[in-house]
Amino acid sequence: MIWLLDLGNTRAKAGSWHQGQLVRLQAGCWGPEGPAAVLDRLAPAERPTAIWVSSVAGSQVQAAVIDWARGRDWPSPHFARSTAEALGVRCAYADPSRLGVDRWMVVLAAAATGRDALIVDAGTACTVDAVTADGRHLGGLILPGVALARSALNQRTQFLAEDVVTTPLPVVGNDTNPAVTVGAVHALLGAIARVQAGLGQSSDWHDPLCVLTGGEARLLAPHLPGGWLERPHYVLEGLARLAVAADETGDIG
Ligand SMILES: Nc1ncnc2c1ncn2[C@@H]1O[C@H](COP(=O)(O)OP(=O)(O)O)[C@@H](O)[C@H]1O
Ligand SMILES: CC(C)(COP(=O)(O)O)[C@@H](O)C(=O)NCCC(=O)O
Ligand SMILES: [K+]
């Protein structure tokens, strides 16, 4: 069993890769009690044969994960990295180390389908990435997620907007809260639509698979056109691909 961790800026997500399946999926928010307490809650009962981590949560969290595993006498965690090429996919960034590894993981997950694919990971930040059927990562966008956009506005204005998203999504808001929240949702939906339209102009972009993941996926899903696939654990799916491939080749870097 391989234990998989997706460490984002707001939450830790975990799952176990067991007999070709992602099982025991869990999530926990980072909080004042520190990363070790979150890992304690997410950890499987049995010792994994390997631990693979996709982390954008910073070096302190990374160090805490290493210490935590050592404290249990569990295998040292492998930290996945964004690279120029992996599993037949080439990274769009000239300096791949600058691409968030969570973005690279969803690109690798989508590339397994062999289709052109657009992936939206609606987390703390909302990222949009495109990868072609022949394994070219085209790049993406990084936008503030809905909660982050709201907190940024609250910090720099005199209002204190709270979360209100009504369905159906209004075209305009009739008070501060809906103006902020509906505005943030429109901003994301508008950006996604523009990327889809732009890629659609290209002759080598056909019938793309559109995947939605992340903690804010449920805010966006009802307002996206049909055909979007919701895959809540897409980062872990990509990480599992990488871990399994490394296990098969004996390359655990
Ligand atoms: N139980 C929850 N706790 C905190 N945030 C949540 C929760 N459920 C959904 N969210 C929303 O999801 C976002 C975090 O999504 P996630 O994909 O875990 O992000 P990240 O990978 O950046 O940690 C938050 O900004 C919040 O808006
Ligand atoms: C954009 C991100 C902050 C998203 O992180 P998340 O919202 O999932 O916590 C992360 O992918 C990141 O730190 N990226 C590095 C910059 C880049 O991808 O260009
Ligand atoms: K994200």
UniProtKB/TrEMBL annotation:
Binding site for K(+): 121
Gene Ontology terms, MF aspect: ATP binding; metal ion binding; pantothenate kinase activity
Annotated positions binding ATP: 6-13, 124
Chief place where the protein resides: cytoplasm
Pfam families: Pan_kinase (PF03309)
Catalysed conversion reaction: (R)-pantothenate + ATP = (R)-4'-phosphopantothenate + ADP + H(+)
Cofactor(s) essential for the protein: K(+); NH4(+)
SUPFAM superfamilies with a match to the protein in the record: Actin-like ATPase domain
Keyword Transferase part of the UniProt annotation: yes
Pathway annotation: Cofactor biosynthesis; coenzyme A biosynthesis; CoA from (R)-pantothenate: step 1/5
Subcellular localization(s) per the UniProt record: Cytoplasm
Keyword annotations of the record: ATP-binding, Coenzyme A biosynthesis, Cytoplasm, Kinase, Metal-binding, Nucleotide-binding, Potassium, Transferase
Catalytic residues of the enzyme: 102
Organism domain of life: Bacteria
Methyltransferase listed as a keyword: no
Binding site for substrate: 93, 100-103, 176
Cofactor binding note from Swiss-Prot or TrEMBL: A monovalent cation. Ammonium or potassium.
GO BP field: coenzyme A biosynthetic process
Gene Ontology CC entries for this record: cytoplasm
EC number(s) recorded for this UniProt protein: 2.7.1.33
Protein task: Catalyzes the phosphorylation of pantothenate (Pan), the first step in CoA biosynthesis.
Subunit record text: Homodimer.
Family, as annotated: Belongs to the type III pantothenate kinase family.
Name of the protein described by the UniProt record: Type III pantothenate kinase
Protein species of origin: Abyssibacter profundi
Lineage: Bacteria, Pseudomonadati, Pseudomonadota, Gammaproteobacteria, Chromatiales
